Amino acid sequence: MINLYIEQAIAYMLKILKSRKEVTFYKDEFNAIKHGDYFDFISLIGEPIPFIVSWRNGTTMMEDNIKKDDIDFVGLLKAGPSIKKFYELCKITYGYIQDPDLSDEDFYNVATFEIALRMHANNNNLLNERETLEKVIDKLCEFKNISESDRNQLHQGRKFGNMIKQHKMHFDSWHEGLTEFNKAFEIIQNNKLTII
């Protein structure tokens, strides 16, 4: 898997949310990055887009702007400088956060889980704008012929992410939730649904 700033930024954002710190100042940025809306995110942060050469419909293109219809990986690359700036702003605003229940790797994996599922669903043109992760999982599992039991386990992983973001205890403990999440994360790895 590729180490992208977006994973670090969302992992840190999840730590902020779990710690119950106030996020109203960066609410729009958090929402855009959470939902993979790189077009809006770049507009909000405003960093320049790096030079990229892409292959689209049999044509090589040099691109220096973001398009609504960019596939997610291209959007991620274009958003890189804005994501880096956002991550640095968040670190300045919120500082170091030590979580008593989850490791940094756990937060990173939860961030990667949602990004990867959304990316694969978007890249296969399965989604409407701002689709819920529940629908992302259902549509992607149907498209990839993933078994019902694995689909249910992916929803357990989704519920664990929601437990972090929404402060609703979907499991009896953080340990139980993490165990269920790790099973879901293994499913995306086994089905080659990771970012790279």
Entry summary:
This protein starts with a helix and ends in a 6-residue tail after the last helix. The protein has helices at residues 5-18, 27-34, 38-45, 72-94, 104-123, 133-144, 148-166, 174-190; strands spanning 52-56, 59-63. It is mainly α.
Give the percentage of residues in beta strands.
5-15%
Query: What order do the strands of the largest sheet run in, or round the barrel if closed?
Result: 1-2
Q: Judging from the principal axes of the Cα atoms, what is the shape?
A: globular
Low-confidence stretches: none
- What is the succession of H and E elements? HHHEEHHHHH
The radius of gyration is: 17 Å
Helix content: 55-70%
Number of helical regions: 8
- Straight-line N-to-C gap: 5 Å
Total number of β-strand segments? Answer: 2
Can you walk me through this structure?
The longest helix has 23 residues, at about 70-95. The chain has one domain (about 5-190). It has helices at about 5-20, 25-35, 40-45, 70-95, 105-125, 135-145, 150-165, 175-190; strands at about 50-55, 60-65. It is mainly α. The termini are close together. It is about 60% helix and about 5% strand. The chain is globular. It has a two-stranded antiparallel sheet.
